[in-house]
Design brief:
With about 300 residues, the protein is α/β, with parallel strands linked by helices. It has a single domain, classed as CofD-like domains (Rossmann fold). The chain has a 7-stranded parallel beta sheet with strand order 5-2-1-9-10-13-14, sandwiched between helices. The chain is globular, with a radius of gyration of 19 Å. Bound molecules: ligand FO1.
């Protein structure tokens, strides 16, 4: 069994590669729900939907989120009824949000609704929300405390980030199966997602850090930075605003004690002597093309067997 801890687009790209090489029923993904929000009264779980659409072959390869070729007629009509929206919900994407909102209102858990969507869309990977309790990632910035999508999408990640917090995480519990997946997997992979806003919410859940620390010899992280730049998203700026260097050292520091291996891009390995706790491995980690994601997935499977 391999378990991937993932956020949005970066995690989905690696997952596409893993789903192609890991036998059906042997792959679990634990997904960040700190980005979840409500738009037009609908429950939207962007990272879960990015993962589901990617696994269902519906996601646009480059953009990563939403449904490829989707139309926006509902949104256009809504903009005539209320103030112009800033979060682009496509017509086919809205069907997911209608279904999720409807089932949650019936009392189903987010895990249950996610499993129903996987079944309906023929997805063989086990997709677990990190928690069924509400957790919201908030960005403390020079523009005040911002809800995550407000910061990332409406303000285009322009505010300077001082810190990130996870409202509700302390009293939340990991969803059923999450701790067991970490305990039972021969390899746990931390996806090349933003550590602060995509992986951080998962680590903030009670029980997750101790479970990873105990399993750390089987935990490998994939760097979300290549040559000091994020492949996608605001990570490099975030690190700068927090007074950190945007380099693999910052990533190694973030996961120290939780992972014992860090995969970095060729040439990004540290010059100084190997880190006593974290083994740095070099491999192609630019995963836009599916075959490159598959090559990294094959390398990770090799690690799983070797461990
Ligand atoms: N990201 C944007 O930059 N602009 C959008 O309008 C937008 C809409 C959207 C709708 C559904 C969805 O599942 C994701 C969406 N995203 C959009 C991406 C989303 O903000 C990020 O992918 C995650 O929250 C971060 O991983």
């Amino acid at each position: 069994m391999i378990t991937l801890l993932a956020g949005g687009v970066g995690g989905a790209r690696l997952l596409r590669g893993l789903a192609a090489v890991v036998p059906r029923g042997e792959l679990t993904v634990v997904v960040n729900t700190g980005d979840d929000d409500e738009f037009y009264g609908l429950a939207v779980s962007p990272d879960i939907d990015t993962i589901l659409y990617t696994l269902a072959g519906l996601a646009p390869l480059e953009r990563g989120w939403g449904i490829d070729g989707d139309t926006f007629y509902v949104r256009e009509e809504l903009d005539r009824l209320t103030e112009k929206g800033w979060f682009a919900l496509g017509d086919r994407d809205i069907a997911t949000h209608v279904y999720r909102t409807w089932r949650l209102r019936d009392g189903a858990t987010l895990s249950r609704v996610t499993a129903e969507i996987c079944l309906a869309r023929g997805i063989g990977v086990r997709v677990l929300p990190m928690s069924d309790d509400p957790i919201r990632t908030e960005v403390v910035s020079d523009r005040g405390v911002l809800a995550f999508q407000d910061y990332l999408v409406r303000l285009r990640a322009e505010p300077a980030v001082r810190s990130v917090r996870y409202r509700g995480a302390r009293k939340a519990r990991p969803a059923a199966g999450v701790i067991e997946a970490i305990e039972q997997s021969s390899l746990i992979v931390i996806a090349p997602s933003n550590p602060f806003v995509s992986i951080g919410p998962i680590l903030a859940l009670p029980g997750i850090r101790p479970a990873l620390a105990k399993a750390r010899s089987r935990v490998v992280a994939v760097s979300p930075l290549i040559a000091g730049r994020a492949v996608k998203g605001p990570l490099a700026d975030m690190l700068g605003a927090m007074g950190r260097n945007a380099d693999v050292g910052a990533i190694a520091d973030f996961y120290r004690g939780l992972a014992t291996r860090l995969i970095v891009a060729p040439g990004d390995g540290p010059r100084q002597t190997a880190d006593a706790v974290m083994e740095i491995l070099e491999h192609d980690i630019l995963l836009l093309e599916p075959q490159r994601a598959q090559a990294l997935a094959t390398f990770l499977c090799g690690l799983a067997v070797a461990l």
